Amino acid sequence: MKAAPDYASAKLLDGGGIDINSLPEGYYSEKNGIRLVSIGKIHEAGGEGCACPMGMLAREFLAGIRTFGDDVVIVDTEAGIEHFGRGIDAEADLVLMVIDPSFESVRLAERVFVMSENSGVPVYYILNKWDDTYSEEIRGNIGDPSRIICEINHSPEIIYAGLSGNIPEPVPAEITGLADSVLHLSGKQN
Questions:
Q1: Domain ranges of the chain
Q2: Among 5, 37, 83, 132, which one is least packed by beta carbons within 10 Å?
Q3: Where does 93-190 sit in CATH, by number?
Q4: How far apart are the C-alpha atoms of 167 and 177, rounded to whole Å?
Q5: Could you report the per-residue pLDDT of 148-160, keeping only the tens digit for each?
């Protein structure tokens, strides 16, 4: 039986970097100047196999991507800590963690805080589906509450827009504020 490859040190890309503007059409979707690239999504049950090779490809893609001017790359990983184990965080300038009002989400935030600190990548929190009735309890269980950069209130308008696949109109102020915070933290805006 053959051993699995060493995904941590394997190289799939040639090392020359990837110009974000040279991605071929069809490999990303774009709306309002924002491009979405998807790596490693499972599309069918059975046969698509382990996510490790896709994690390796994502890590190399992020390590080699060249941005220009005010470009910002945001990586939306699966919920959990698997991306830390795959080394994707090593290519990040910061980690944004969405915390829902649930026991599991708060416990995960504690683990992400420790892993992020150990990897030298700062973590910032986005509190999702927020309500003042439980705000203080959750804030008290977060590794460093000063790193909360956004609270998105529990909003039927946002939920209905999401269920229909639409952007809420008007865009809530906390979402616009979040975008500004990310630009500021990335050094792209003062």
A1: 1-80, 93-190
A2: 132
A3: 3.40.50.300
A4: 16
A5: 999 998 888 999 9
